[in-house]
Specification:
The complex is a heterodimer of chains A (115) and B (113). Chain A is mainly β and 115 residues long. Chain A has strands spanning 4-7, 10-13, 19-25, 30-38, 44-51, 57-58, 67-73, 76-81, 90-98, 104-106, 110-114. In chain A, a hairpin with a 2-residue loop joins strand 7 (67-73) and strand 8 (76-81). Classes of the chains: A mainly beta (115), B mainly beta (113). The A-B interface holds A 4, 6, 32, 34, 41-46, 49, 91, 93, 95, 97, 103-109, 111 and B 4, 36, 41-46, 49, 89, 91, 99-106.
């Protein structure tokens, strides 16, 4: 089946530093990748939609200069949280949409803690 | 703006019981509806996807129904097992090819042995 990986699975960083999270589709090519954020006991909230070779589309209220997204290939998208602050601590999940089946497959998530 | 609501927020049942989880959405113009399972601290596993033209989908002990006109979906779990304990999320994909999913907050299910 289609597998999406995320790296790292968890990260702790100091306030003011930047953190990069990778999302890879391991056995399929993705037309589109999505980045979500999930706070405790809350729903997943879409942050941005990323298409290979073009700029990401951000949802209302998401700062594009703070959450940098690079979709370098059909199997890799990265999310960089710049100048992280404690309020950025959250669970970040990516999904990838298959070029063949059009289904979205989710990664295992990355737990970010900013101290 | 599409909003997805799931009731109840939490449910605890004894093993073997049949149960129903509910999902409602405010805008019936959806492309499809999907049920996911999320284990603590983990990503999402897709359980069932119902296209807007379909009424239900079944997979093993799971059955999901969709009533688009009334904005409702149910997930029926038969003969529940402790391994079914997880949070179940409902999500709708907006019509128009946006590919965006709008999620509910989920129902946390605990099946007691």
């Amino acid at each position: 089946g289609a597998v999406v990986s995320q790296h790292p699975s968890w990260v702790i960083c100091k306030s003011g530093t930047s953190v990069k999270i990778e999302c890879r589709s391991l056995d399929f090519q993705a037309t589109t990748m999505f980045w979500y954020r999930q706070f405790p006991k809350q729903s997943l909230m879409l942050m941005a939609t990323s298409n290979e070779g073009s700029k990401a589309t951000y949802e209302q209220g998401v700062e594009k200069d703070k959450f940098l997204i690079n979709h370098a290939s059909l199997t890799l998208s990265t999310l960089t949280v710049t100048s992280a602050h404690p309020e950025d601590s959250s669970f970040y999940i990516c999904s990838a949409r298959s070029r063949v089946t059009y289904e979205q497959y989710f990664g295992p998530g990355t737990r970010l803690t900013v101290t | 703006k599409q909003e997805v609501t799931q009731i109840p927020a939490a449910l605890s049942v004894p093993e073997g019981e049949n149960l129903v989880l509910n999902c409602s959405f405010t805008d019936s113009a959806i492309y499809n509806l999907q049920w996911f399972r999320q284990d603590p601290g983990k990503g999402l596993t897709s359980l069932l996807l119902i296209q807007s033209s379909q009424r239900e989908q079944t997979s093993g002990r799971l059955n999901a129904s969709l009533d688009k006109s009334s904005g409702r979906s149910t997930l029926y779990i038969a003969a529940s097992q402790p391994g079914d304990s997880a949070t179940y999320l409902c999500a709708v994909e907006l019509q128009g090819g946006s590919e965006k999913l709008v999620f509910g907050k989920g129902t946390k299910l605990t099946v007691n042995p």
